[in-house]
Amino acid sequence: MGSNSTKSTRAKCTDLQMSFQYSLYATTYILIFIPGLLVNSAALWVLCHFISKKNKAIIFMINLSVADLAHVLSLPLRIYYYISHHWPFQRALCLLCFYLKYLNMYASICFLTCISLQRCFFLLKSFRARDWKRRYDVAISAAIWVIMGTACLPLPILRNAGLANNTESCFANLGLQHISMASTIGMVTVAELGGFVLPVVIITYCTWRTRTILQEFQVPPQNTKERKKALWMVLMCAVVFIVCFTPYHLNFPFFMMVKQRIFSNCSFIKSTLFFHIISLCLANLNCCLDPVVYYFMTSEFRDGFLEHGSLVLQSCVKCKAGALEIQHRKEDLQTISLEFMDDSKTM
């Protein structure tokens, strides 16, 4: 009897629905959608003009923007669901949106790590940077997409079971398929070590090493400026990583154990589920924070944006000037025609 009571308590706590999650998710996605769509579209447009700058991590930034845009474009469906509490679309579309969320998270982690590592490496080995080929970054990016795309597949597969009985539910209301303890430990270990611990170590080392180089060596002013930009970029990668991805990965092992009904303490279960919701909202902020890495800290990006922006502005000014000139000519023609009519009446 005691065993059945414990299992019943675990099931009741694990299946607990946080009433605030719908409004919080909807509000978060609404606030992220427009800024995320605009800044990442603008970033992708400008970065593509600097694809020849092979030693500035441009390829990784382009892929980071693509990852963010893929997730941002799925947000309207998430907003609709969390407002209406109803999913009228196909099951495959729900799983695709769910998949894109985690693909964006882990692809972003990889590309942020690559940006930090490359900037630090080129700062340490400036001569090696001259021989670095753009195809190396393209190959690394392709490998990241294949590896992360494959690694994230189990996440929607485990949630697919929750759609079998109720096709109108999606996202937070999806159940989690029960798997063995060995499989749970393996999945959590891979996600934590490969998707969190290793990137944290690399980004922390790059930040420390870049800062040390900047402080220890006396270099010409132009090189100091370049090194400061590299330091700020690495620091921003660290900030985005800490703010967006650290809370989720700190909570992820406990969340998986809660979903597999390992814990029986109801208060702990509620706290874990509550923090999971908050950490997911923070993870979504990376769509708006990632562009900060290359917008505010990369002079080439700012120069390109201003250059293309000025061309658009000049075109607008020319169009406006042309319209004013046409208007003036119309007014002159009207004046001439009126004078001609007056002369005709006088005659």
TrEMBL record:
Superkingdom of this entry's organism?
Answer: Eukaryota
Annotated compartments? Cell membrane
As for membrane topology, the entry says: Multi-pass membrane protein
Designated name of the protein:
Putative P2Y purinoceptor 10
Q: InterPro entries from the entry? A: GPCR_Rhodpsn, GPCR_Rhodpsn_7TM
The protein's predominant localisation is membrane
Keyword presence, Isomerase: no
Entry GO terms, CC: plasma membrane
GO molecular function, a single term? G protein-coupled receptor activity
Q: What does this protein do?
A: Putative receptor for purines coupled to G-proteins.
Keywords noted in UniProt: Cell membrane, Disulfide bond, G-protein coupled receptor, Glycoprotein, Membrane, Receptor, Transducer, Transmembrane, Transmembrane helix
Q: Where is the G-protein coupled receptors family 1 profile domain?
A: 39-294
Alphabetized Gene3D superfamilies for the sequence: Rhodopsin 7-helix transmembrane proteins
Q: Which residues cross the membrane?
A: 24-47, 59-83, 103-124, 136-158, 178-208, 229-250, 273-296
- Name the GO terms of the biological process aspect: phospholipase C-activating G protein-coupled receptor signaling pathway; positive regulation of Rho protein signal transduction
